[in-house]
Amino acid sequence: MSESRKFSLPILGEVDRRTAVKAGAATLGLAAWAAAIRPWFEWTAELNPDEVLQKHYRELTPEQLQVILNKLTDEARKQSGKPAVVKDHKPIPGVSFAYALNLSICIGCRKCAEACHVENNHDRPSHQSYIRVFEMQKGGIDFEKGNANYDHPVPAKDKYYMPVQCQQCENPPCVKACPIEATWQESDGIVVVDYNWCIGCRYCEAACPYHARRFNWEKPQIPANEINPNQSYLSNRVRPQGVMEKCTFCLHRTREGKLPACLEACPTGARVFGNVLDPDSEIRWVLENKRVFVLKEELGTKPRFYYFFDK
Amino acid sequence: MMIRQETVSYLRFLRRSLHVATDGGWLFYAWMLVLTAVALVGANAWAVQVRDGMIRTNMTDHVSWGLYIANFTFCVGLAAGGVMMVIPAYLYHDHDMHEVVIVGEVLAIAAIIMSTLSVVVDLGRPDRFWHLIPGIGKFNWPMSMLTWDIIVLNGYLLINLHVVGYLLYTRFRGAEPNPKWYVPFVLLSIVWAISIHTVTAFLYCGLGGRPFWNTALLAPRFLASAFVSGPAFILLVLRVVRVGTELPMSPGPARLLVQIIRVAAVVNLLMLVSELFTLFYAGGAHLASARYLFFGDHGKYGLVTWIWTAIGLNVVGTILFFTPAALERGWTRVAACAMVIVGIWIEKGMGLIIPGFIPSTLHEVVEYAPSLTEWKVTAGIWALGLLLLTAMLKVTVAVFTNKLSALAEIPPVSSSS
Ligand code: SF4
Ligand code: SF4
């Protein structure tokens, strides 16, 4: 320890041998700390400083938002090698979305879950999707007897199938939980996440009663040629690491007047989607003429996702 | 002029405190070295986790909170329990207690820092921490329970820092502390201690979709267990201080702590029994998680060993506290303390947070056991907390034994450890 005699901390004043040794130890300690947290700096070096200081989505001026969209578009093009665009789709006034699913004809083929996986630029290795399809025992609606990991030809005898995704609750517990308003409900009823604002505390995931939220445990991996180039800021753009995501009723499609990818993929026509404020819509007809029900009604979350049986 | 003198004197206090806090015998240095090493391992594991993503943990979308939040819950309890020393001292004017009260508050400071760190390491994006700062971020208050928790925890930290700082600094100057400047804060800290643990309980029991947490008994159970783990930890600290330093200590306060623990431990066990009874006798949505926790479900038994270990430790620990030997200094008391601390750490963590997620809200049973990264980071947080605690205790003891005093001209070169 003889070299450490050279060190001295001005603040310590009395520079006896002991103090010098301590100062040496402190210097060594600091060096060790710097070495220990080096991976942190490897990570921050890749961060974009503008993004680190970016304001909340709803506080951005149109100009600021445009700058961000341009930058994201550039990134998406680089990443996919395609003429990708990241747009910002605003809710359409006078529209309130709802979804209904006919359990009598759903056959549990999981085509909807697969379509979601592709449409929404989900992580490939984990086969992520916003939809989970449960194989249920006929005779009740008891998830305890359900199974989402079935692996046999469908439909199986004495079973029916229940796809579950975000219910776009009118009274969403996830939104209440978030400490920083990184997730909120828009005027058409869709609950969205600002991926550039979320801190990844996962309180919303604990709060959601429908297992609808997904966390990016690592940077999503998608081969360039499989990336969906039609992207939106609040929905299917490739998500950053460490933030929350969820089903957005494909707002990048539905706010352009198209149907959700899961609905288009369904081979049986079990899914009905539309604007409940439009009296001539199919969804309105279903809600008025079928005995529809929602999941966990007792929680008071008021889902916009309805289920019904034909018979 | 006055202010200038004050500042100089205060800076001198800080400088001398730093000196005292880093000075000791070889045992002290060895202890600090080991703690630093563990903290470094933890810091490294955390930095890697930030770089590679939370995939380094074993958490999933099914079990989305794990060891970190478990440890957070325990540390909040420890912080609340730390102030339990204060109640008898100030409400009943028990003068023996006054000198040791500060130990409880020092413990509270270290525990709050540990709980804050436990949340920080749980964030997927710690670089965006500033979003949580009211004013520049977007603080979802009063809607989100988490914002309430952030407020009460920080408030508690400030109160305790003030009380400890004020008492030590006045002692250092050789002055009598002015009750006006600390008694109101001490009383406030008692109420506040209850609030931090209650609000933390609300964090979980406010979630309607998680029936295992959605019980009115959660907050009272939190408090009861905090009144066990806090005083038990203080008893251990007092023992180290008594054996390792020259601070004279009367046996009275420790006896009082044992009495507090006796009552709280029994209440805690009673509430556990009543909850178990309601669960298994009446059934209900609550049952699935409880069944998995205590007996396993669908051929999965991940938490069974944990919870029965916890119950075993808590029951034996409580029995030990009721033996006459627990009132005396000795190993019975130490063993009892260690048992209830570990028991409650499991019960409030692995036994409370994890089963809230198993089965999931759609009744899927996905198991969870912490990864090596999570263990390293958690150990690192404890090491850092103990480092802080040790340093603060060194200063406290030095002030109370008049080794660290403005009146003593030459600072003592070394104090025992
Ligand atoms: S289903 Fe879950 S994620 Fe979707 S709005 Fe409701 S609480 Fe939020
Ligand atoms: S994970 Fe993100 S969206 Fe969810 S509560 Fe935390 S900050 Fe809000």
The total of beta strands of chain A comes to: 11
Strand order of the largest sheet of chain A: 10-2-11
**What is the CATH-assigned architecture of the largest domain in chain A?**
2-Layer Sandwich
Nearest-integer average pLDDT of chain A: 93
Quickly count the domains of chain B: 1
Note poorly predicted spans of chain A: 1-9
User: How many separate helices of chain B?
Assistant: 13
**Average pLDDT metric of chain B:** 89
The oligomeric status of these chains comes to heterodimer
The overall number of domains of chain A is 2
Which structural class do you get from the secondary structure elements of chain B? Answer: mainly alpha
- Largest sheet, strands/sense/barrel of chain B: none
What's the tally of helices of chain A? 10
CATH topology of chain B: Formate dehydrogenase/DMSO reductase fold
The radius of gyration over CA of chain A amounts to: 25 Å
Query: What general form of chain B does the structure show?
Result: globular
The helix content of chain A, as a percent range, equals 25-40%
Helix-residue proportion of chain B: 55-70%
The gyration radius over C-alpha positions of chain B equals: 22 Å
CATH topology of the largest domain in chain A: Alpha-Beta Plaits
Features of the shown structure:
heterodimer, A: 311 residues, alpha/beta, Alpha-Beta Plaits, 2 domains, two-stranded parallel ribbon, 11 strands, disordered N terminus, B: mainly alpha, Formate dehydrogenase/DMSO reductase fold, 13 helices, binds iron/sulfur cluster
Describe the structure.
The complex is a heterodimer of chains A (311) and B (417). Chain A has helices at residues 17-36, 38-44, 49-52, 62-80, 111-119, 173-177, 203-207, 251-254, 261-265, 282-289, and strands spanning 85-87, 97-102, 132-137, 159-164, 183-185, 191-193, 213-215, 230-232, 244-246, 271-275, 305-308. Chain A is α/β, with parallel strands linked by helices. Chain A folds into two domains: 6-42; 97-308, 2-Layer Sandwich (Alpha-Beta Plaits). Chain A has a three-stranded mixed beta sheet, with helices on one face. A two-stranded parallel sheet of chain A has the order 1-8. In chain A, strands 3-4 form a two-stranded antiparallel ribbon. Chain A is globular. By secondary structure, chain B is an all-alpha fold. Chain B has one domain (2-400): Formate dehydrogenase/DMSO reductase domain (Formate dehydrogenase/DMSO reductase fold), CATH 1.20.1630.10. Chain B has 13 helices and no strands. Residues 410-417 of chain B have low confidence and may be disordered. The chains are: A alpha/beta (311), B mainly alpha (417). Bound molecules: iron/sulfur cluster (SF4) (2 copies). Residues 177-178, 180, 182-183, 193, 198-204, 244 of chain A line the site of one iron/sulfur cluster.
